[in-house]
Design goal:
This protein has about 220 residues and is an alpha/beta fold. It has a single domain, classed as Rossmann fold (3-Layer(aba) Sandwich), CATH 3.40.50. About 40% of the residues lie in helices and about 20% in strands. It has nine helices and eleven strands. A five-stranded parallel β-sheet has the order 3-8-2-9-10, with helices on both faces. Strand 6 and strand 7 form a beta hairpin. Helix 2 crosses helix 9 and helix 7 packs antiparallel against helix 8. It is globular, with a radius of gyration of 18 Å. About 30% of the residues are buried. The N terminus is likely disordered. The chain binds guanosine-5'-monophosphate. The site of guanosine-5'-monophosphate (5GP) has 15 residues, from strand 6, strand 7 and helix 5.
Length: about 220
């Protein structure tokens, strides 16, 4: 016999959240931080391709790089737009990074977590610290923060030079910033010491799986 029609939210929730007929779980907010050039973008792209996460698209005042798409990679805001959203209290966190403003809108994060979706959010160390101190316990409990540690600064310099999207002056600035950020790894629940993209992805997958089985995330029906 076919089951009675469920309300639409149940259908959506079952996609992400219902584990079996006895258990469901809350969404997880995977926060990933790494100095530029640590291989995070490639890792994040690989994770996005799995389709297992809702990717949190940040807002930024920096200009799009070649190939970046508004609404997919970032929402590219003018400084005026950014400040309007900021004054309206719409950012869960925001920070100035490399001379530009970056921020995460609150509403899409809360809405996705409430549906039980797992989110992936790529933010700098300042943003991660703001989220850890967030006044909303629902968000604090959802956070799993992961730091991607580059093998060393020379390798980072090599990767940034190969990427070719920054001037040598900008590369030096990013390396100075990277050295500062690398000191903050202890603040994160997990640290992945970066090797190849495949190895990093594998390590990240172990974290995801373990976090999904945490007893405290389960809800008995
Ligand atoms: P990029 O401009 O190279 O894409 O990113 C520069 C830095 O900004 C990266 O460290 C990235 O993680 C960080 N970032 C991207 N989006 C956000 C955001 O919404 N908030 C914060 N705090 N940092 C962000």
């Amino acid at each position: 016999m076919s089951s009675p029609a469920k309300p639409s939210w149940r259908k959506f929730a079952s996609k992400f959240r219902i584990l079996n007929k006895h258990f469901s779980r809350n969404g997880i907010l995977f926060v990933i931080s790494a100095p530029s050039g640590a291989g995070k973008t490639t890792l994040v792209e690989a994770l996005r391709k799995t389709g297992e996460f809702v990717y949190s698209v940040s807002c930024t005042t920096r200009l799009p790089r070649a190939g970046e798409i508004d609404g997919k990679d970032y929402r590219f805001f003018t400084e005026k737009d950014f400040l309007t959203h900021l004054e309206a209290g719409q950012f869960l966190e925001h920070a100035a990074v490399h001379g530009h403003l970056y921020g995460t809108l609150r509403q899409p994060i809360v809405a996705s977590l409430q549906k039980g979706a797992d989110l992936l959010i790529d933010i700098d160390t300042q943003g991660a610290a703001t989220l850890r101190d967030c006044d909303d316990p629902f968000i604090r409990q959802a956070i799993v923060d992961v730091f991607i540690m580059p093998p060393d600064l020379e390798e980072l310099r090599r990767r940034l030079t190969k990427r070719g999207t920054e001037t040598s002056e900008q590369i030096e600035g990013r390396l100075r910033q990277a050295a500062q950020e690398m000191k903050l790894w202890r603040d994160y629940r997990y640290t992945v010491i970066s090797e190849s993209v495949e190895a990093d992805l594998q390590k990240f997958r172990h974290i995801i799986e373990a976090e999904r089985y945490l007893s405290r995330r389960l809800i008995e029906q």
